[in-house]
């Protein structure tokens, strides 16, 4: 089976070790679907979507330790996607940590913040109209 990965500029991958894998999988499946990011694979102890790996403490890679609180920001293609992310998160176990709105970080920074089932601050952000040099770096394995 041929695998194709899309990579960004800085982070290779992030692993979140969670208390309730089922609740996290429901949450992340819903919010990532809104962002057009598919869940690539699942096992009994983890699932992954591109650079994000979410596992239970029982997963061999977790070493029995929860990861604690993190802030993750996902890129959205437009303001409507930020809004859809926010409402999908609330409908699937997330709690509001900042309704969709333009933020003061820079002109056109439109974002929403939610708390996932493990207390992580998860954001969807649209930076405004911009020209990308490439949609992503593609790695064929």
Automatic annotation (TrEMBL):
It comes from the Bacteria. Residues 10-127 form the VOC domain. CDD domains: VOC_like. Pfam families: Glyoxalase. This is VOC domain-containing protein. It comes from Acinetobacter bohemicus ANC 3994. The lineage of its organism: Bacteria, Pseudomonadati, Pseudomonadota, Gammaproteobacteria, Moraxellales.
């Amino acid at each position: 089976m041929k695998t194709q990965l899309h990579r960004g500029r800085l982070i290779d991958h992030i692993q979140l070790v969670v208390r309730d894998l089922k609740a996290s999988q429901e949450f992340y499946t819903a919010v990532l679907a809104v962002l057009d990011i598919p869940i690539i694979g699942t096992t009994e102890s983890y699932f992954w979507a591109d650079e994000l790996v979410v596992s239970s403490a029982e997963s061999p890679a977790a070493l029995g330790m929860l990861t604690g609180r993190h802030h993750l920001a996902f890129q959205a293609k437009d303001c409507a996607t930020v809004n859809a992310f926010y409402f999908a998160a609330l409908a699937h176990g997330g709690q509001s940590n900042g309704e969709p709105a333009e933020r003061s970080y820079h002109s056109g920074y439109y974002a929403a913040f939610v708390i996932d089932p493990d207390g992580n601050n998860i954001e969807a952000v649209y930076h405004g109209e911009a020209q990308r040099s490439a949609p992503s770096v593609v790695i064929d394995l």
